[in-house]
Amino acid sequence: MGDIKNFIYFQKVYEMHSMHRAAEHLFISAQGLGKIIKNLEHEYNTTFFVRSQNGVVPTDSAKLFYDWSKELVLQDAHIKTEINNLNNGINRLRIGCASGILKAIQLKTILDFANSNKTLHVEWSEYSNEEVINKLLNYDIEYGIVVGLHDYPNLEQVKLCQCNLVLYVYEGHPYYEKEKIPLDMLRDENIIIMNESFHIYNDFIKACKIKGFTPNIKAKTMDGGTLMHLCRQKIGIAISPKFEDEAPAGLKAIAFEEPYHWDIYGTFRKNSKDDSIKKLQVALLPQI
């Protein structure tokens, strides 16, 4: 296998479609960069770039090599980090949670796990659903808790729980006495919902479009308490996962007639040999 640094040089040429601009970005001469690319082409017995008036055009071989080299560079960085952690006695587990998920799984479960594994440094942060997946793929976290299945061959997912999505309405609203409601009855309603950082936003927009309409989003927020407050103020009716059996005071949770729920998955890399991931998975499953 070639030098990892040369893979990074190759990637920059591929991304910029120019040997000269890539060389400037990498602070090396265009001649030196050209030689590195030629050596890679010789090593892999192929042509990666065809010269054009505007720079270089990647070949099909370059596209294949680019995808593989990105993974190899990430793996190399991960190996170096793990060796450094091992040499310095650092044992850590970084957890990424999709925004809003912690209410479904209970943060206390993660904190109890950390307290019962004193030699393990546990870190957790919230990100958008897609950010959690990207951080797993880029070796920035070891374990993710996300909504829905994601089709990546190097990721493994285990279903943790299911969380129903419901409509919260305020007292006095025409729907307040209903027990169930079809999604298309929201066509002319003012909707309050969590913003684009949350999986529910894009999920709801997509579900409405399948029904043939675009919802009237009156307000977007990043806080569940604010969501319910705005609903009580009659700014609109709110879409939210149902985390509690009892609805907040002055509001009623109404189920949808259609199957509308979140499937929540623990997600990790298939090639992981980290025992702490298996221990966390065992801790999460029986308590959800």
How would you concisely characterize the structure shown here?
The chain is of the alpha/beta class and 288 residues long. It has helices at 4-16, 19-26, 30-43, 60-87, 102-105, 107-116, 129-137, 199-210, 224-232, 275-284; strands spanning 49-52, 55-58, 92-98, 121-127, 143-147, 155-170, 180-181, 190-194, 216-221, 237-241, 251-256, 261-269.
CATH topology of the largest domain: D-Maltodextrin-Binding Protein, domain 2
Return residue spans where pLDDT drops below 50 for at least 5 consecutive residues.
none
Output the number of helix runs.
10
Strand content: 25-35%
What is the percent of helical residues?
40-55%
Helix/sheet category: alpha/beta
Level-1 CATH class name of the largest domain: Alpha Beta
Q: Based on Cα principal axes, name the global outline.
A: globular
Q: What is the CATH-assigned architecture of the largest domain? A: 3-Layer(aba) Sandwich
Work out the count of structural domains: 3
Based on DSSP secondary structure assignment, what is the total number of beta strands?
A: 12
Mean pLDDT: 88
